[in-house]
Amino acid sequence: MRPSDRSPDQLRPVTLETGVNRYAEGSCLVSFGQTKVLVTASVEEHLPPWLRGKGQGWVTAEYGMLPRATHTRGRREAASGKQSGRTQEIQRLIGRSLRAVVDLKALGERQVTLDCDVIQADGGTRTAAITGAWVALASALDYLREEGVLKTDPLTDQVAAISCGVFKDTPVLDLDYEEDSSAEADSNFVLTGSGSIVEIQATGEKRGFSRAEFDRLFALAHGGCETLFALQRQAIGR
């Protein structure tokens, strides 16, 4: 039995609340159980210098954890003057994941920045951020089309992410912190609505894992993402 009394293929309760920031073009408060991430999508009519004049836009992300998002207070990275390697790796992952489902030429010469701030962490913050970031991005692009800025929808597909792991020799879906901290293996799957793989991160923590275990993790992730895709569509009214 899992610590949360969930079955191996059961997600934590997931909510995707839109319109939580009155100023951002798109926003989403995403909750996976006790993990909560606030995502805002900001549209800017300028690009990084290396992209100017190329007839395309850009989607990027920034990620951070509030000081008391975890059991003990963490120091703000701004106070130390640099981001940790973990932060840089996660925000690059979020950016890659969203760009995989955006037609950058259709976006035009503008940038959308997705700010992902972890309010509370109980495992799976990067996967929650990706799932919520798609909703915030879709909301921002809908706004641009309503305003007549965009003629077509630059989104080509949905993207969502979920964690899976081997806990007490059993492959399970959507690890919380208690499971993640003691799992024999853990993984993160980033998948699109059409079934493509954007990224898979899989690590043996206490032992290696078998091909059969990996196949089961992949199957769990696929089923979990199908549920997330439905929740995303519901959140933005599509």
UniProtKB/TrEMBL annotation:
Phosphorolytic 3'-5' exoribonuclease that plays an important role in tRNA 3'-end maturation. Removes nucleotide residues following the 3'-CCA terminus of tRNAs; can also add nucleotides to the ends of RNA molecules by using nucleoside diphosphates as substrates, but this may not be physiologically important. Probably plays a role in initiation of 16S rRNA degradation (leading to ribosome degradation) during starvation. SUPFAM superfamilies: Ribonuclease PH domain 2-like, Ribosomal protein S5 domain 2-like. Belongs to the RNase PH family. This is Ribonuclease PH. PANTHER family: EXOSOME COMPLEX COMPONENT (PTHR11953), EXOSOME COMPLEX COMPONENT RRP41 (PTHR11953:SF0). GO terms for biological process: rRNA 3'-end processing; rRNA catabolic process; tRNA processing. Its EC number is 2.7.7.56. Pfam families: RNase_PH, RNase_PH_C. Residues 10-140, 157-223 form the Exoribonuclease phosphorolytic domain. It comes from Brevundimonas halotolerans. NCBIfam families: RNasePH. InterPro entries: ExoRNase_PH_dom1, ExoRNase_PH_dom2, ExoRNase_PH_dom2_sf, PNPase/RNase_PH_dom_sf, Ribosomal_Su5_D2-typ_SF, RNase_PH, RNase_PH_bac-type, RNase_PH_CS. Keywords: Nucleotidyltransferase, RNA-binding, rRNA processing, Transferase, tRNA processing, tRNA-binding. It comes from the Bacteria. One of its GO terms (molecular function) is tRNA binding. The keyword Zinc does not apply. It catalyses: tRNA(n+1) + phosphate = tRNA(n) + a ribonucleoside 5'-diphosphate. Phosphate binds at residues 86, 124-126. It is an enzyme of class 2 (transferase). Homohexameric ring arranged as a trimer of dimers.
